[in-house]
Structure formats: C-alpha cells, structure tokens
Design brief:
Distance between the termini: 34 Å
Strand content: 25-35%
Radius of gyration: 25 Å
Order of helices and strands: HEEEHEEEHHHHEHEHEEHHEEEEEEEEEE
Helix content: 10-25%
Low-confidence stretches: 1-22
Number of strands: 20
Strand order of the largest sheet: 6-7-8-3-9-10
Number of helices: 10
Number of domains: 2
Structural class: alpha+beta
Mean pLDDT: 88
Length: 388
Amino acid sequence: MNMMPSAIAQARSLRKGGEEDAGHDAGQTDFLTIRGLEAGYAGTRVLKGIDLSVFKGEFIALLGSSGCGKSTLLRTLAGFAKPDAGEIRVAGRDVTRLGPDKRGMALVFQSYALWPHMSVAQNIGYGLKLAGRAKADIASRVGELQMQLGLGGLEQRKPAELSGGQRQRVALARALAVQPDILLLDEPLSNLDARIRLTVRHEIIALQRRLGTTAIHVTHDREEAMVMADRIVILNEGAIAQVGTPQDVYKRPASAFVAAFMGAENCLPLSIEKSGAGLHVHANDLCEGASLPIPSNPLVSGPVEARFRPQAVELTPHQPQTGTEPGGDGAVIFKGRVEQTSYPGGAWRHVVSLGSHSVVADAQRSFAPGEAVNLRVAAEDLFLFSPA
C-alpha cells in the first residue's frame, strides 16, 4: 500500500501529539554515538565510515535496498559482528568491543527466533531467567508485557500455535523484558501480511513512545520508515546518503539516489543556466523553457538530471506554449505521448513517452494511448541534480 504524503504527515502528527518534526536538535545530548564505523565479511568492506548520533528515546529507521549495509550496521551495533574500525558509544561508554550481553541492547530478529519448545511466557521471560531474576519478578514482568502487547491468555501456547503477528509480538516482548537501553529491530514486520503489518507497526510505535526506549529499526519499506521514524538514515553501498526527518528526505533529497529511493523515479535530462536569484531551463525536444527559483541543493549551469514523482505531475491534453518567453509560473512543462494506461486504484496511471525517455504520471482521469499530453511539474516537486 502506498501512503500519500498527507496521510503520512497525519499519522506522524497523531503519533507526535500534533508537534512538528524538530529534527536533530543541537540542544539535546547524544545517547548513541557511532564514529568512523567500518565492517565487512570475508574481506569485503560493507560499512564505509559510518558517523551517526542518536538521542535517547529517538526512533531511527535505517532505510535502504538489499545489500546497502543496514543489517550489517545493526548486527555490529548489537555485537554480533565485529567492526574493522571505528567506535560505538552508549551514554558515553565505549561498547565497541563488548559482547552482546554487555551493551544494554536487545535485538528483535526478522525470523522471530523463538524457542519452539517454550511457551509464550517462557520465551518472554528467557532473558530475565538468564539474568538470574526472581521467579516472582519474571512472572510480573511477563504478565505486564503480555497485556501491553495483546498476548493475554496466550501464555501457555507454543510458537507453532501462534499467528505470525502473535509470534512477532512475543519476540518484541522478549526483547523489551530485559528493559534495554536500545531496542534494535531487524525488519521485524517483513514476514507479516499487509493488514497485520499495519497493526503491529502502530503497536511498536505506541509502545516505544510510552516506554521512551531508543530504537533503531532496519527496513527496506519507505512507507514504514516514513510513518514510524523520528529520523531516517538512508544507506547506499555501505555509506550514509542522507539523514533527516521524514519530511526532510522526502521534500529535500540530498542526491539523485535519495530522490529516486524516495519515489522520484521519473528521470529526464535538462539544461539550466543560473543567473542571480533565478534558474532558466532551456527549451528542448522534451520540454518548454521555464524560469524557476534556485533550489537549496548546489547546482551549476549546464546539464542536470531532473527527477519527480508520478503523483507530482499535472497531466493535461497537449497545448503548445504561446509566445517566446519561458514559462514564469514556477513549473516545467514536458511534452509527451501516452503509451499505456492502467488503474491501480486512487488515480489513473500513465506511461508517457518523451522521445527516447519514458516516465510514469498519475491523473484523476484517463488519457488514451497515443494521445499527446503536457506534463506540468511544479518547481517544489522537481528535483534537479548536477552531474557528480
């Protein structure tokens, strides 16, 4: 399910009690600090100098495609993988070389990793038993977590007798039972169907906020990261591509890679010229000339890569621009022809050809294949990047 930006903002506003995302406030104290972290396997360098600071009680999402290093980073934080360089500090304490049980962290695995021969209550209380806690304390803590996570009445069941959502709740309860300083979540929702995933997602958010636990959540699901996280860390090939609030990375992507990963997969070549406070887009076979404000990211005059999302397009029947002056309404108008039309729900989806290029554009009405169209993209929805 693709959640529109307005729905995402509403969900986050409800979670935050209506407050705006503040980002990484310089007045707060870093709780988890990662500096120059490098790690790999069998001679292959996976993490390439990771630097990251996390506040106490903050929910961080590590977002990226398969193989980008996000799970390696999580396992290195947990102590299950040894770094080749760098350091990890929790509340000022160096935990880089400490064992997993000495770091004050708990990891929830993607596969749940529950003991099949143990009951729900025994699985939840396992870490407390290893720590030598009294039986009465264990029973009290287990009962409390069962109620918080909707597991009441299931304490005697074995994992095989539970649904996927219930098994995930047990794994989460087991991790929280030891009251970790940092909760590590390794794609814990990926094995659940879409409906249950939404339910468990909101349960994790509510519980994390109520307990004030610092959480690091690995996911490849963009919507999941947008809804759950205070800040998103986007990884690419073992390095951090951008760190910011969901609004930051969605509305102000720092690179073409981030823009594409955050949904701006349409890509067209343009040529620009900077002058004063403005930006001139040269007319070509793909678009009409336009005048735009200069965006915040650095650009140089010459060829640029233009990226935009399908829902950012205003699709209309083709109408040539009148006059010779570039458009001054803060938008670029591309010229194309519809190739395919489909209805995935919510809006009509069109594949539009522009010369040798193709883009995807959504509209509230359908345009027939072969129809000439204009694609208007407002300046704030158009992400421009100079070649590296």
